[in-house]
Amino acid sequence: MAPFQVPASLHDLERAPYNLLPYPLDFDDDDEAARADSFLDLVHQLEQGNRTLSSGGVSLFTAAIAADDGDSDEWMDEDRVQALYTLVRKSMSLSPDTRLRLVYALCQALKTLSSILDTEPVDSESTVESQTSSQVMPQSFRDAFACHLYMLFSIMFYQESEAKVGNSLKSGGGNKRDNSTDTQSANIRATCADAMVVAAKAMASNKAKLWRRGVVDESVVILPARIGFQMLESATGVVARKACSADTAMEMIAATTEYSDEGALGTVVAALMDLMHSFEHMAPICAELCCLVPEKPTNRLANELLKEVGRLNTNGMSGNDKASGIRNVAPFISHLAGMRPRLVLSNAAYFMPHLDSEVYHLRSAIVTCIASILSNTAGDEEGEGQGNPLDEANRTSLLKILCDRVRDVSSFTRAATLRAWISVVQSRSLPAEWFIPVTELAIDRLNDKTIMVRRLSMQLLTTVLENNPFMGDLEPERYQVKLAELQKFVLDNLPQNIKEAHEAALEEATYSAVEQDTERKEIEHATLAAAIVDAETWKDDELTEEQELLRNKVQALTFTQGCLDFIALFESANEAFNFMLHSKLQSDVTEALKFYVRARHFKLPCAISGMKNALALMWSTEQAVKDEVRKAFVEVFLAEPGTDGKELLSSDRIAENLMTLITDATVSEIASIEEGITSLVKDEMIPADVFVILWSVVSKGSRKAKSAAMQILSMGAAADRSIINSKSRLKLLLDACLGDYTERSKDWGLARASAQALQKVDRATVDEGCAKYLVLERIMEQLAVVARGDWCSDHQSRDTLEWFSASEEAIKALFGISSCPEESCSEIVQVLYANTFKNSEGSQCHSLRLARFFHVLGNVALNLLCYTEELSSSVKQANAKKAEQKQVDVDAKKAKKQNPADALEADDSSQSEDEMEAELGIAAEVEAETERQMSEITETEILGRGLVSAFAPTLVKVVGNEGGKFGSEVLQTSSMNALCKFCCVSAEFCEKHLPLMFSVLARAPEGDTVMKANTVVALGDLAFRWPNQFEPFTPHLYANLRDPSTKVRRHTLMCLTHLILNDMVKVKGQVCEIALCLQDEDCRIRDMAGLLFHSLASRSNNPIYNLLPDIISQLSQCDISRESFRSIMLFLLGFIKKERQSTTLTEKLVLRIDKSSSISQQADLAYCISQLKQSDKSIRFLFDNFKLYKDALHDEDVLKAFTGIIAKARKTVKIDLKPLLDEWSDKINSSAETGKQDKASNSKALKAAQKQQKKKKSAKVESDSEEQDEESEEEPRRVQRTRRRAKSKAIVSDEEDASGADARPESEEDTDDPDEESEEEETQNTQTQQQTGRVQRNRRRAKSKTTVFDEECKDDEETEKENMTQTRRVNRTRRLAPKRIV
């Protein structure tokens, strides 16, 4: 036979040089039975040959060497090869038993050949170069080994192909194979794989014996790897991996790779890369495969695979579709790093450039790889295998990479980086100096926009806290004391050189510094820093005892300062923690609560404040959130750390924790704490001993502790009244909270807390012999004293301000426990009236007394209203029970009448009176009468004829403050609150005084935010109480949304939100004011406004749709920026989801474009249209009404909006609308171009008209100048003529005088001539002055016209030339004017 060469395919064996037949010549296939028998005969032939091989061994092949004919082979003859070919080719159509026998026979033959190869001795002293033909296996053995190996490969190939077809049928829902078939296939696969592993290992370890000079036949060596690749394709899971013998397949590939040459290795690497590109599950398998390859001296497979990963081209693959292959390859790096970190570190230079690639999967995998390297090489000096050591420089470089990747552009990579940090911290591989930077990174990522990143940031903070290098107790006070001691010690024991420099700096600061304390601290910090640096340079073998002690103190100082900086980081991140806590996502809330639990265990101060904020979630509508908050509350304040709430703390510790929680809490926090404590008391989670300890604190504790303990007792009494409602505890409350201590210390907080606790006590029943009643009677007397403010000082307004809340709670307590509260309150008002008005010195009462008086009046009136409603409710309940009982009796009587035996005895005269009442509806009439009586009492009794109503005019006068007589801020606040409470009682009183309240609110000082905020809240209550009376004043309430005070705006928006959502105020055009709140500078106002619109949009009728046209119209006229307008509209238009609403709104807005008065309004409307989802109908409407917005398309914003509409429509509209879109686009573009040209033409025409107007003005100026010049030239000639005429007249008069001198008397000569001359001179002087004034006026006129001319003709060349000419003329006129004046 010719040497066996591995063919390209099995069917190539029928061609030269093999020339095999499909079937042997003696193959009988007349029928199925004969065919099956023929296949069995072939299998039997193979089994007989295997027995011969087992007995003969290598001698069967060496015999051919001695023979002359090389083709003489007694075992591997043509018949065996033909039988193998026929059986393998038809293996998939064989019966299961025949196939199984074939597989066993083939595997047995291959294992026998492999064992012969392993056991045949070879001269150990020979090398590959010195091998001879006698030391290499015969060619016949190689042919037999290759043939059987290839045949086994072919069977396995067919087996894997059939398995893939079966899997595809299963996934596609086709006919399923039975379990027995799958089990048989798995057994066959396992048997074949074992034989293939044996052959692969035999070839790998005996290549010197199998091939001359060790030059392997790559086509034979690669066969186990080829079938191994195909087997690994199906290893998609744990079950599939076991079924397809993936572990064995990896052994086959590893054995092939171990001793293969570069060519075979390249083939394996290329195949593995292709598999990783194609299959998602291959990356971890390839990483495991690399670990199977021994590292002698290097892991060639891992090195080559990492090089190939580094050569991946990621340019332009940012999309998910393009990067799918790389996405499958990327996990290989991270998995291999987890198994062989130093191996990956030594090859990191190949794939590190991918940190700048566009595919985030690679970046994420590299980050995870770095975490594995840092975590698994911590404290490992030698490392495993071959690889670079992780020195300090490499560690720092890797940590810096993780710091940079925290801000990656991809949220997935940021999340992977945070997971990497968590892994590094948990493995305790993070150096101590890196804890603060990592904490800063985690806090910064709490503001990330991605949920996953925020959650991992909280987990990282929790992990950092649990693994911090400092002590378990992070209470800052202890460290601050220790830091001060260490600083003092170091400053007192400085080295000589540093000490001298420190003293010199202190002397200079003492004489030259202005702020000596500040500069002294700076000098001390600089000195300590120098001492720390100097101590780090000292060598251990050269230190004295003093230096050793100083260095230890310096190290302790550095450690303590780092601990305080670490604590300060968490304290500064409270805002970020609160953001997570109040997130809408339950995962954010859960992670924040877990952090607070851990923070409390480490005694971080932020844990208390955080839990106070967290308790606000007790009011959440989601039960899961409430359960998480309650669980966190128990773990923080009640349970032992680390026990998950199963083991409680001691009662003393619990009481201390609860008092710490309640101390310095706000009103809203106290309400949330009360809700939490109440629910825990109901479930008996708080031991009873805790309340006993709290009572002892009330009696013997400090001022702050008394108040806190009393508040907690009051909260617990809301769920269990027995905590307070007993004689002994009421007596203790009276003595400790309402006795001499409270009067002496004026502890109004304790008085308020005790009054709140008394509101949980049952109403007293008059019984002079009952000790509890006597205690309650004494308590009511003391409550009246507190309510009147008898202990208040008139010299301190702060005392009165603290008394307000105590008085309010005391009055509530009186109405709760007194049997006749109206009498008690009447006495309080009368006594307080006497103290306020009758006992006041002088003609005016004290403003603080008057404020207290009005405060009591308001609370009494409001509590009288509540008490009246409570009585009315009791009457209604009694009437309802009575009516229900009557109905039961009537039904019983009717049932009795239906019984014939009882009907004879029944009275048939008439129905009973109760039945008549039930039929006529007397019960309903009684209920209506009760309602009427209650309304009459509130309207006429409380503020009509009652004691309180007598002071209403005085209250109104003080609130009006005419003349500024009642300008006290405390008085104004108290009187305004009282007036609001009066208005809650009576509708008539409210309607009468609402204008006064709004006028006072409008003219209130800008700084009086407390009064304005309180009034706004009270007005909201009035809107609930009397909606009809309040409705005309609704716009005035909206006006407060523009108040300068953030507090007033927030309270106003809160009231309007409640009113709108409860349908107490109609949502009209004023909602535009709420829309403007979406751009408010305060985030709470923005969030509240957004919540309001979300709530409105969730309603079935979606009122936002009806309000949008008015909102758009009003916003476009408001003085807001375009960015703000578009931001608001983008938010509001997002609520328009229905196609019909979007279409209708588009039609309305398009019609408004044509009626808009400015191009900016048109642009705003076009933007709104572009943000709506356009349907086919709206597209047609826009196309048909093109003329409505055609003239506005010259504006860039309008054009951009409509082109955007077309671009979106092309993606969604039907095919038949595509031509319409093309036509519409052409019309828009042409109209826009025409509009731009028209705009340019109009601009040119306007410039031309302006230029013509300027020319006319210049021509007029020129004509005026010419007239002026002519007049100026004429003036000198006129003056000269006048002078000549005067001169000629003088000559003529002289001649006449000379001729008639003898005839006239002397006296006439002396009198006539001077008069005549003086008259002419006067006339001449007058004319000259008039002429001079006229010239000056012409000069001023010319100058002013020249100035106007200069301003209007700056940019025009022709006009500029005319201007120069005119200027020269004017200048010439000016030069001539002085001459004319002269």
UniProtKB/TrEMBL annotation:
Gene3D superfamilies in UniProt: Leucine-rich Repeat Variant (1.25.10.10)
Condensin complex subunit 1 C-terminal domain segment(s): 1011-1170
GO cellular component annotations of the record: condensed chromosome, centromeric region; condensin complex; nucleus
Signal peptide: none
UniProt region (Disordered), positions on chain: 886-917, 1231-1382
Pfam families reported in the protein's UniProt record: Cnd1, Cnd1_N
Domain Condensin complex subunit 1 N-terminal: from-to ranges: 106-237
Transmembrane regions: none
Compositionally biased tracts (Basic residues): 1279-1288, 1369-1382
Subcellular location, record wording: Chromosome; Nucleus
Functional summary from the UniProt entry: Regulatory subunit of the condensin complex, a complex required for conversion of interphase chromatin into mitotic-like condense chromosomes. The condensin complex probably introduces positive supercoils into relaxed DNA in the presence of type I topoisomerases and converts nicked DNA into positive knotted forms in the presence of type II topoisomerases.
Protein known as: Condensin complex subunit 1
